[in-house]
Design goal:
Keywords: DNA-binding, Transcription, Transcription regulation
Number of domains: 2
Order of helices and strands: HHHHEEHHHHHHHHH
Mean pLDDT: 90
Distance between the termini: 34 Å
Pfam families: FCD, GntR
Number of helices: 13
Radius of gyration: 22 Å
Protein name: FadR family transcriptional regulator
CATH topology of the largest domain: Four Helix Bundle (Hemerythrin (Met), subunit A)
Number of strands: 2
InterPro entries: GntR_C, TF_FadR/GntR_C, Tscrpt_reg_HTH_GntR, WH-like_DNA-bd_sf, WH_DNA-bd_sf
GO molecular function, one term: DNA-binding transcription factor activity
Largest sheet: 2 strands, antiparallel
Shape: elongated
CATH superfamily of the largest domain: GntR ligand-binding domain-like
Length: 244
């Protein structure tokens, strides 16, 4: 074991874990206020600096929001994929990994998600997926709407897989691999092809056909990779950086 790994956890990190455990124990929900600083100092028997470091860490992770002013303090939040995307970006940056890394991961992951979605997606999620397909079709001339609906479509399928890990992972991957941010352009003819692929995937999921959903998603991601490789190979080879 390395020296770095043998160091005991910092008191502030241990306290952060205890605060989260207490949020679960009390059954706190999003929007609930936690005890004020004075009471937390007494309850956890720590110094003000340690408590504030713990709360700041939890705020960065999206677990709480620190509301300023009288009557403020820590408020429970619902964490999202932002912290995960940041952590993945930093890990990949220090590996000097290119954007191709993210694109290739989708080739393996998203067909599995589509298969599970065909088996598990709720009717409400299915309606949301259909709305995304329809909205994209109505606004094919607007690349901003196209990109929004493209992300929404894949998000709905990931969360509709019934596997929370897939949901947050795809959120994070799409945050990193935002086509508009790394220079991949989608002319209208390409947008039309994407919309048609989305429609086919939706039909397979709506029919509750896992095999067809898997194949349709696999074809869709393969087409995306071929398009990016042909038109934007330099973009895929660009190193991932947190600045993106």
């Amino acid at each position: 074991m390395s020296v770095a790994n043998s160091r005991p956890p910092k008191t502030a990190m241990l306290l952060a874990q205890q605060i989260v455990a207490d949020i679960n124990r009390r059954g706190n929900r999003v929007g609930d206020r936690l005890p004020p600083e004075r009471l937390m100092l007494e309850e956890y028997n720590v110094g003000r600096g340690t408590l504030r470091e713990s709360l700041r860490f939890l705020e960065l992770q999206g677990v709480i929001r620190l509301r300023p002013g009288p009557g403020g303090g820590p408020v429970v939040q619902q964490p999202d994929s932002t912290a995960l995307a940041t952590s993945l970006t930093l890990l990949l940056q220090f590996e000097n990994a290119p954007f191709r890394t993210i694109a290739e991961s989708r080739v393996g992951l998203e067909p599995i998600m589509a298969r599970l979605a065909a088996e598990r997606m709720s009717e409400e999620q299915l309606a949301d997926l259909k709305a995304s397909v329809d909205t994209m079709k109505l606004h094919l001339g607007d690349q901003r709407v196209f990109l929004e609906e493209n992300k929404r479509f894949h998000d709905v399928i990931a969360h509709g897989s019934g596997n929370a890990m897939f949901g947050y992972l795809v959120d994070a991957l799409l945050d990193i691999l935002d086509g508009s941010a790394i220079g991949i352009d989608y002319p209208e003819v390409r947008r039309e092809a994407v919309q048609e692929a989305h429609a086919q995937i939706y039909e397979a999921i709506a029919a509750r056909d896992p095999l067809a959903a898997t194949e349709a998603m696999s074809d869709h991601i393969d087409q995306y990779m071929r398009y990016a490789e042909r038109k934007f190979p330099d973009v895929l080879d660009e190193p991932i950086t947190w600045a993106h």
